[in-house]
């Protein structure tokens, strides 16, 4: 290796000839080939139903995305390009927040390297291969023995969080996590003075990473990168190597900016859109101190905070009961109590069994725990104590930061401060996601420690490490056993369950006590089973390390034992969340989008309107009425233009309307569908049909027409001006939107005249083509029109007879336009300038990127010819 500031100070990471060699050596290439085969084979075995049975993973979130994007796909088929606006959700929103393809530079985008990295495999097979391979690259670049790098790749790739997010369909999150270690590897190459190879790889992997458009994982990856960069800066300053420091930081920054510009259409659009979403606060006055004017409400943002004791799941997967759907087991004490209680109604018995959840952590619910692996945690803890690696401290710093961030509201003194002051941090929710940081750093330090261990020949040092390994293993056993005896196995939800049960059973304290006691015993049994499992792996890990320190086993045996133990451990837990039950036939996957009677009924209507869906379920288990699912499910959007939908970043004005008016309107409609004055907001949103369960057949749905929908546009008689957003919202309860529009005074200058009555005037929708909406208007007097379209001034422009004109926000979420007397063509066109700018920048950035890659390739070739090396 080069003798630069980033050279390892304490041990030789790899023999020098592995970086500089005169001729090809199969012996050096062999472990990389083995790594490729191991990662590929393991991913094929772990996801075998995909290739063997032709099945697909039944990913709920991917189904939701497909439903969101369906209108855009249909538009692309018809028009040959993607729309920038969709009508399918929340009354309308930018389509490029769901699916987007740049009009320029798509063919030669640097990001197309991602297609190569799939090695021709279907998802999720290539997911697991890619994430292992990228971590393997990081280990190799740091200088870890290739055989141990295989251990690192498996540890990072098969952490329980990965099978969980594959199962639920968080594809962009997974792929972002997969590319993260490759970005760090590229940075380290630059810091090791390998500017050309490091720069080229950094550009490729950064572009692939940023194209996933998952800002929260990007944010956490930048935290790890900052810890790494700070370590390098400190080392360079100590060595007074300022030239290398300047070159490295400048190159890293320049390549990072280029990658961002290549992906700028999506990122620029997201940045602009985010300012108008719930992630940037609300225009309404805050009602409590947790509400933010510039970001998410704290209560909402910190819901999914990892509990402090929940961190025990890092080493015991079911320390908190597993996931919210984890079974209590075949020998459930709760089941015994319910079966042995006489005169207990069957329906109540079923409800109480379902309420007895195994999970008792701090989060509202969870698909499963973050489990790093017993062996990996053991190696990490030993490494934290005995490692002399220069990388140890930045890795430990990043690990601690990640865990503290994940605690969220459970460490509010830090996290509330960061939420209020750290740039962009208040845009994110789910603090527990920060555990992707230690998911990367824990196995990294673990393999670094083992790599150091095999390089030690001094018997006294080996003996000392052996003793410390026994101490760490014993300490783990004491902590796990102590937790079993001291933990309550209850959380806040358990207390609420006990309280509600006592009331429901008319204070039958004996039954309530027996039920809660049985639930605690079930949770104890679940913990105990996994505790013994963990202790078994810890014992095996300590044994193999101790035997090695006594020089009773060779390094090869150490490698094989650790790899096998870790693989068995992690894949065993991973199969709890991604198993045969997670896969379905492609035909069955598509049943989520099948039409029911209500859909068939609605599709007969060729006009443009919106639908409110209150029926959720399926044709097998029947449909139930649910209001909350209306705004957390996008399947309706696959078939209709929906009042509801699902998206993690809804427009703030629509989120406000939902919370203040829509829920209230839906309840009013359900109480009396004929009382039109009680659900005026739904009427102004052009809600023409309501989907409900069919009373005669609960496995079917029925569409109830709403004759009071105001249509696509209408002319009002007067405008009520208000001073602020709160008055605008509250006015919706008192106006008749068919006659009166409520408007913030800030828009008054855009209304050059007041509307005048004309009984013969009209305005009609001619076409709604997503990005282009046309109306026909005629009146002998000046008028003011309200359009049942969501107000979004970051792209929508209004035209009267082809001449651009100002329009207004009315009724809190809709568009309004003053129209002079006469016969006119009214048109609204959507064309985001920021997206156009991003596409132009992306085009030129791609050219620069490819020129840089060609230059890097030439310089690497030139250097290899000069030095006889292969970099």
Give me a quick take on this structure.
The chain has 871 residues and is of the alpha+beta class.
Q: What report would you give on this structure?
A:
- With 871 residues, this protein is α+β, with helices and mostly antiparallel strands.
- Strands 13-14-20-16-17 form a five-stranded antiparallel beta sheet, with no helix packed on it. Strands 10-15-19-18 form a four-stranded antiparallel beta sheet, with no helix packed on it. The protein has a three-stranded mixed beta sheet with strand order 5-8-9.
- A hairpin with a 3-residue loop joins β13 and β14.
- α5 packs parallel to α8, α12 crosses α30 and α16 crosses α19.
- The radius of gyration is 30 Å and the shape is globular.
- The N terminus is likely disordered.
Q: Low-confidence segments, ≥5 residues, pLDDT <50?
A: 1-22
Please state roughly what percent of the residues sit in beta strands, choosing from under 5%, 5-15%, 15-25%, 25-35%, 35-45% or over 45%.
5-15%
What's the pLDDT, averaged over the residues? 91
Computed over alpha carbons, the radius of gyration is 30 Å
- From the spread of the alpha carbons, the general shape counts as globular
Q: Bin the helical content.
A: 40-55%
Total number of strands? 20
Termini separation:
11 Å
Strands of the widest sheet, in order across it, are 13-14-20-16-17
User: How would a crystallographer describe the biggest sheet?
Assistant: 5 strands, antiparallel
Number of helices: 30
**Structural class assignment:** alpha+beta
